[in-house]
Each structure stands twice: as C-alpha cells, then as structure tokens.
Amino acid sequence: MKKNRKFNIIYEDSDIIVIEKPAGMLSVSTDGQSENTACRLVSDYLKNKRGRAWIVHRLDRDTSGVMLLAKSEKIKLKLQDNWEETALERSYIAVVEGKVKTPERRITSWLKQTKTLLVYSSRREGDGKLAVTNYRVLRISGKYSLLGITLETGRKNQIRVHMKDIGHPIAGDKKYGAATNPFNRMGLHANILSIKHPTSGEEMKFESAVPAAFMKIFGG
Questions:
Q1: Closest CA to 70 of 82, 191, 207
Q2: Do residues 99 and 55 lie in contact, with contact meaning Cβ atoms separated by under 8 Å?
Q3: Judging by DSSP bridges, how do beta strands 188-196 and 64-70 pair with one another?
Q4: What is the predicted pLDDT for the residue at 3?
C-alpha cells in the first residue's frame, strides 16, 4: 500500500485508483465547498501524472475505508452504468449500540427522503428505492455489538437507516438515533470492495483493516 499525505493508496493502474478514505473527509463537494474532499485530493495527486479523478461511488463523511475512483470520465460512466454487476462485494464493519440478539439477518425496505434530507424506511413495496442489507454479529461487549455488513443495494445512508430500524443505531451516528459517540466519529468502516475491472474484466478485491479503536471496545 502506498502512503500519501492525506490518504492511503491501496491500488492504482491506468484506469482506476483505490484509496482508504479517512473519517471526517467528504467524498466530493456537494455545494461548492473548498475543503479537501477525497476527489480533490486524489485529483491533486494525479496532477503530477497529468490526470484527474472522477467519483464512482461515495462514502459518508464520517465513514472510513475502501473507496474507488476512476481516472477518466469514460471509465467512471462505465463503472457507474454497470455498478450492480461491477461491484461484486461491498462489505462494512459497524459498531452499533446495544446487544444485537439476532445473529444474522437480511433487512429489506424501501428508502425515501424528507425535505430536510433525512432518509427513512417504508415497508410498503415499491414506496421508494429498494434497499437490502445483510448483517452478522461478530462480537458483543457490554454496550455495543460489532457487525459484519454486506450490501445488496447501495442507497444513500442505507446501513445507517437499517441499523436505526432494528433498534441498534451506529455508534456516533446522532442523525440516526445514536446516544453515544465513543470514537468521536461514526462507527462505520468500508473494509472490503470487490469489483470486475472496467477494462480487463478481472475480479479484484481491495481490503482495509478495521480501525483499532473499533476493536479496542471488544478487547481486540
């Protein structure tokens, strides 16, 4: 893994670049902010190679982990247009509040958004965008559970909403009901992204280690 000043580079070739996005960094500017977003920082890094970066998918500001960017608009569009087939696995590690009693579960709902940009679930089929999240319990401590999460769909705030729905909001996620913030950030980390390469078609798997602060709560 190559080290960069603001982010780590997991993989890079002529078409794509895969980074570890730190918590607290926006993926891309949404309203003209001049702050250092992941897209801007990667583009600055690529300037030395006469290139720039295009966002393929986003991670929330307080979510860390594996993030894929394209090196051309053509590759970006190819990835986005076929994202459900291209993204073979999207896995996360989450620290949620409380003891999750059901060891494994598949959560399905239809997501909608309020005028204040709060995403919420509808159980009525077709009433919003279909969202499917799978989780399994990895560890439990006194106040928290460590979950391994895989996505079947990639909707905005999907994991955060579904964890709130089951009564176990992600630690540090005040927006979706968390009462505690043990990490001074949200307890969500994108640890695995597997894709089909947009040019070669090769299956590739990229991983990011679970933050040590997450594991410390569980004695790890």
A1: 82
A2: no
A3: parallel
A4: 60
The domains located in the chain, with CATH, are 2-216 (3.30.2350.10)
Written as six digits, the tokens of 61 are: 């500001």
Which of 87-101, 160-174, 176-190, 206-220 is predicted with the least confidence, judged by mean pLDDT?
206-220
Give dist(CA 109, CA 121) in Å, integer.
Answer: 6
Q: Which residue has the higher pLDDT, 4 or 54?
A: 54
**Mean pLDDT for the chain?**
93
Q: Which residues of 85-99 are buried (b: 16+ CB within 10 A; e: fewer)?
A: ebbeebbbbbbbbee
SS3 per residue for 110-149: EEEECCCCCEEEECCCCCCEEEEEEEEEEEECCCEEEEEE
Confidence of residue 49 (pLDDT cuts 50, 70, 90): confident
> Is residue 171 helix, strand or coil?
coil
With CA atoms as reference, report the closest residue to 211 among 57, 92, 112. Answer: 92
What is the secondary structure of 63-84 as a DSSP string?
A: -EEEEEEESSHHHHHHHHHTHH
**Greatest Cα pair distance in the chain:** 52
Confidence of residue 34 (pLDDT cuts 50, 70, 90): low
Rounded Cα–Cα distance for residues 95 and 171 (Å): 6
Q: 143-166 as b/e, with b when 16 or more CB fall inside 10 Å?
A: ebbbbbbebeeebebbbbbbbbbb
| Residues that are catalytic | 60
